């Protein structure tokens, strides 16, 4: 598998966080802003049950590279 095409999905049943590692610029905004969910020291590094969906969505929205995105599970990823 091409490392540039890897996409990971993490879901809590309500929302799904999408991570595209090839886009990540390691700004640290995700894990410094919401360490209960994002912790690069462990695998998997996204613990989706660590915070309410709205808090996760808000933090993911601060990702400057677009490596992290999210969608509500009743909606299509887009």
Question: Which strand order spans the largest sheet, edge to edge or round the barrel?
Answer: 1-2-3
Q: N- to C-terminal separation?
A: 23 Å
Annotation field: number of helices: 2
CATH fold label = Alpha-Beta Plaits
* The top level CATH class name: Alpha Beta
Explain what the structure shows.
The two termini are 23 Å apart. The chain is built from two helices and three strands. It is of the alpha+beta class. It has one domain (3-72): Alpha-Beta Plaits (2-Layer Sandwich). The protein is globular. It has a three-stranded antiparallel β-sheet, covered by helices on one side. 17% of the residues lie in helices and 18% in strands. The protein has helices spanning 29-33, 53-60, and strands spanning 8-11, 15-19, 68-72.
Summarize the structure.
With 78 residues, the protein is α+β, with helices and mostly antiparallel strands. The chain has one domain: Alpha-Beta Plaits (2-Layer Sandwich). Helix content is 17%, strand content 18%.
């Amino acid at each position: 598998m091409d490392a540039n095409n890897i996409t990971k999905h993490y879901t809590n049943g309500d929302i799904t966080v999408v991570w595209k590692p090839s886009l990540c610029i390691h700004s640290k905004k995700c894990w410094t802003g919401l360490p209960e969910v994002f912790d690069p020291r462990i695998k998997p590094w996204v613990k989706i049950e660590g915070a309410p969906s709205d808090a996760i969505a808000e933090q993911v929205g601060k990702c400057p590279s677009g490596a992290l995105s999210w969608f509500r599970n009743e909606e299509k990823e887009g």
